[in-house]
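Intended use. Records like the one below are meant for learning the mapping from a protein sequence to its folded structure. Do not use them to infer anything beyond what is encoded.
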Amino acid sequence: MYFENRNSLLRSLSLLMLSFLFVSSAAFAQQPPAQETPDYSDEELENFVEAALEVMPLQQESQALMIDEIEEHGLTVETFNTILEARQKGVDAEVTEEEMEAFETALLAIQAIELEYNDKIVEEIEDAGITPAKYEEIMAFYQQDPELQMRVNQIMEEMDE
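Structure written out for the chain above:
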């Protein structure tokens, strides 16, 4: 995958930080750590950037498919998310029976999409020379540590040259 300039690389990494819109995956459900950022080697960060650049389009593709599934079942993303949130909280969603049936059908389709894409994502991460756990750890620290963001952005600049 090629990016025209540094700004597109940075936008891509920023987009990557968005988690899946609907269903949390066990493989990618870590919470950001509440500790000091480890001193990652340049090689680890280079592998992270390589993985991120391969994972981002897969996440975007899977999200688009999930949205299509929701809409094909006559729901809006907002309605789907409202029902999902209510279910996660253990409360009844104030929706019609048809909306609930559409939700159940769309949810099954979304879970199948997520399983398929999670396998692809894990493969891309491992192909970049990093484990999924290390990838998620670095991503979590990247989101909260400006110094790590600067290091990763520098590596991205170097890779873009």
